[in-house]
Specification:
Helix content is 82%, strand content 0%. The protein has seven helices and no strands. Helix 2 runs parallel beside helix 4. The relative contact order is 0.15.
Amino acid sequence: MSLLLAVSLFFKMLSVPLLGRIAWLDFTTQKISNRDVLMLLCLGLGSLQLMSVQAGSWWDMGLSAIAALLLFVVLFPLWALRKLGAGDVKLMAIIPFVIGGPGLAFFSILLLLFALATAAVIKYPFMLPEGAFRVYVQHLDRKGVVPFGVPISLAAICTIVLLLMNSVYADV
């Protein structure tokens, strides 16, 4: 394993606890800070740049930039209509830089599954076992707020772990 690839994988590993922090803060406060999103963007761009230099091709960087721009353009009107929070739009727009081109399809499938699970928990909180959690989810349902940063972060974490495992086992 080359030094560039090792540092790139280290940047991806650093983004996992940051995504966990984003998920927790979005779950508890329904806010995603610009500082966390910017740190995640820097880690993602650094990782992508190192991988592009290692591979000698900027294809993944270009694909990630196109995907990020497309996601921002598609999700921005949902923010304008107040159907989605600004933090969710920003987080979703930078995820392609964190994941990279090879993981976008897997991320999309996981995001769909986690978003459906989140919607089901919000819609049917009586299925949950713990009373305090049920009360919190009912409160979210009354307010009409769904913390979409949680499924976005969970899908990104799972995809990053899969990419890290593939990278490590490919060199063995």
